[in-house]
Amino acid sequence: MVSTMYTIGEFAAFGRVSVRMLRHYDAIGLLVPAHVDSHSGYRRYANTQLPRLLRIVELRELGVGLDEIASALDSDDESVLRRVLANRRAAVAASIDAETARLERIDRRLSLLEGTIAMTDNVQYRPVDAVTVYAASGIAPGGGPENVGPVVGTIITGLDASLSAAGRRIIEPGVFWYAPVPDSDDLAVHVSYIAEPQPQPGEGYDIVTLPAVETMATLIHRGDMTGIGESWSRLMQRVVDEGYRMTGPCREVYLEADGHEPGPDWVTELQVPVEKA
Fold it and tell me: Which DSSP category does 115 fall into?
């Protein structure tokens, strides 16, 4: 049986892709023409290659990367394709969750601007006593949950293991604080738990005493970390509007936090040391 051959233009039309894209697929080895004329360089594709092209187009429309497409199509094991699709589904679901949270924040901001809801920020200014903690640290490549979150997860896992190995109890609440790294966009991330009255040294953690603060501006954030950036923005805006300036690293005190996976019932106090400008 002789396979029907198509020019690159015909094959592109059948697959609903551009000629340029077919040339790219050829260049990366994803879909190589069945025949290339040695003199003219004209590419020709076999009819039997059309199902592979259609599968590539389908997976690209689903947002699957070309490397993953190649691994799925070049394997005889259907579990590879199932894994690729499952990973893509998880990524889409996470994106939907993030966009839904962003949409809720936009709606809240619009409601505030339109006066349909009132600003309920309960910012307080109060002294905070010194506290000694068991701490571990890391460097995040910038601020924001997308940069800080993965670093925090790694630090917590290591700190928990180190305290357990040293026979130390994990005493809530957890206290995090952040400080910019000079001459860079990085952010130093510090994770800690309250130490016992007689702190004991050990491997994998430091004993740190956070200083007393005469005036700490505080705001309660409720829920997971998806909206914590908005809460921090509101706190900082109030601090500036009320004639204060920041004098030290910001802290997050996790007053109510079940486990290490942020949830809707979490209660976090945001803290920033201030003084009258």
Answer: T
Q: Which fold has domain 124-276?
A: Multidrug-efflux Transporter 1 Regulator Bmrr; Chain A (3.20.80)
- Decide: 226 and 171 in contact? Cβ < 8 Å: no
Give the residue among 225, 155, 224 at the shortest CA–CA distance from 193: 155
Evaluate whether 96 touches 89 at the Cβ level (below 8 Å): no
Instruction: Report if pTM > 0.90.
Output: no
Q: How many C-beta atoms surround the C-beta of residue 4 within 10 A?
A: 10
Q: What is the rounded CA–CA span in Å between residue 7 and residue 46?
A: 9
State pLDDT tens for residues 131-161: 999 999 999 988 777 788 888 889 999 999 9
Question: How many residues are recorded in the chain?
Answer: 277
Q: List beta partners, residue 35.
A: 44
Where would I find the H helices in the chain? 8-15, 19-27, 50-61, 66-73, 78-114, 145-165, 228-241
Q: Which residues contact 226 (CB under 8 A, 6 or more apart)?
A: 97, 98, 101, 145
Q: Which fold has domain 5-74?
A: Multidrug-efflux Transporter Regulator; Chain: A; Domain 2 (1.10.1660)
Q: Who's near 177: CB < 8 A, 6+ residues apart?
A: 190, 192, 210, 249, 250, 251, 252
| Run of H or E residues at 74 | none
pLDDT digits (tens, 9 = 90+) for 192-213: 999 999 999 999 999 999 999 9
Residue owning tokens 């953690």: 205
